[in-house]
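Fig. S4 source data, part A: sequence.
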Amino acid sequence: MNIYLDIDGVLITKEGNSAQGVAEFLKFITASHNVYWVTTHCRGDAQTATWWLEDKLPVDARPLLDKIKPTNWQSLKTEAIDFRQDFRWLDDYVMQAELDVLKKHRAEDKLLLIDLKAEPDILNKLIYSSWKKI
């Protein structure tokens, strides 16, 4: 399965702190899935995402970043998604136009909206419970 991953509000909080369980989560998804950046911090070059996260993630999470592949998109993050493959998209916010694209492809259920403020342990939950439904 392909995993499309945002950074701000998913791996790090709005304040720039790493999310709870981020290293374990990255280890889990990169071990068994094709993981892609779909973030404003990566538009064709995964190194920009790595640089952005360098001082924000725990040391044990940093090597896992090299396993995440870049994407390139212009206006909508959905431009980076391969709708021919099974996928999940983890983001904290999507635009209505992106939701419309998901609906067009009957893929609304592939989006996992992350709210670290309301549910700070969501990454752990995705590994140990909810991920089974994904």
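Fig. S4 source data, part B ends here. The chain is about 25% helix and 10% strand.
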